[in-house]
Amino acid sequence: MGDSQIDMDSLSGPLRRETVKKNVAAIHISGKLSLLQRKLSNVLLLNAYDALTTAQSHTIDARTLATIVGYNSNDFDTLRASLRALAETVAEWDMLDDKGRQEWGVSSLLSFAKLKNGVCEYAYSPALAQKLHDPKIYALINVHIQRNFSSGHGLALYENCYRFVRTHSTGWWSLETFRKLMGVDGSSYYESFKHLNAKIIKPAVAEVNKSSDIIITPEFQKKGRAVTEIRFLIKSNPQMAMFQIDDSDGMRNLATYKALRGQGVSDRLARQWITEHGEDYVKQKLSLMTEQAEVKSSVGYLSAALRDDYQPHKPAAKAEPSPEAKEAARLRDQQRAKEAADYAARQTERQERARRLDLVEDLVSRRNPTQRDADKQLFMAGLEDDLERENFRVHGWRSALNASAIIAFWQEMEPEAFEQ
In this structure, is residue 72 part of a structural domain? Predict the structure, then answer.
């Protein structure tokens, strides 16, 4: 939801074909909401989404709400002020209905909100709830990702690009529309494209590409020498998986990690290689490299060796080996076969663990924020080690250090899901 305005431009491709006459769906959110107020609006909508069109009001534990958004859990004054701001914010839409008829409407963003006995109760007007519930109009934002943002403009741009992730482009927006999306439409300073680009577009694009699961690239159209329209090309962020790599499972204490760092491999790349390939496989390629007479780039050689599975050089045939040499070779082959079997078993185990953690994420996504908070509190209560608790606070249900405990916890909670 909006720091100022949320605009849903024309859909294209398969989505547009599915919506025949739902040509342009635009919901403009007036007002200049702060970054935390924008996050609050997203969390409230996520909490209510499943029952958005069936329940008259929605509830969430107030302390849980404050914690998820980033407020101090005891700062109810700020929470009250933010709820008031959302209730005073106006949502306006102008779109075609299923029969191609024009529909205009206006509503407050929240029809009411109240705090009582530690619970926040709130509601949307029926007309606005219907619009917000349409997945083609509003794309649910990952709350974990929105925590990474430190500016309202960055989060506003992410939200308005993320809803077009399947079509890979936002389509062209006029600069007037873009200024509304960023909440700077009332500023004469940002009438200048030079100022808009330097202070809004470039910083917001940089934050989206650094902090989220998508990478966006702005493109511009001109009339004469003046820029008149902007669009953003969108693709997935291949480094997003790196955000989930566990830094607290002792990886930096491994001899293989230290050897990689000694060869000039960066911290992140060293952890990525060990995570993806396993320590033994990486160690094997390190050993191969040390046998080479000359290697121009350690990082380049290791990257290719891991990718293409370099093997030790086999010398030319020699005289018939002695019985002792044959026995030694047999033992080496036996050991290598055991190591290969162990490696394959670990790979299978890792894949199975990843599959089960994906299932856990799916189960978690079906629960509302209040239930999710209760699940986390219940799980953490069963952790006895401070390191395990801290790791879970940082990585949540993707915590590699707690993977076995997480899977066991959810197997007990949802046994049928794991049986399937």
Answer: yes
Q: State the CATH number of the domain containing residue 126.
A: 1.10.10.10
Give the CA radius of gyration of the chain. 27
Distances (CA, A) of 281 to 159, 231, 271: 40, 44, 13
- Residue 110 near residue 83, CB atoms below 8 Å: yes
CA separation for the pair 393, 396 (Å, rounded)? 6
Long-range contact list for 387-391, CB < 8 A, 24+ apart? 387/248, 390/248, 391/246, 391/248, 391/249
pTM for this predicted structure: 0.43
Could you give the number of structural domains in the chain?
1
Which tens digit of pLDDT belongs to each residue from 349-390? 878 888 888 888 888 888 888 888 888 888 888 888 888 888
Count the Cβ atoms, other than its own, within 10 Å of residue 89.
20
| Cα–Cα distance, 384 to 406 (Å, whole number) | 14
Its domain, for residue 82, covers 13-239
Say if 167 falls within a structural domain: yes
Is 184 domain-assigned? yes
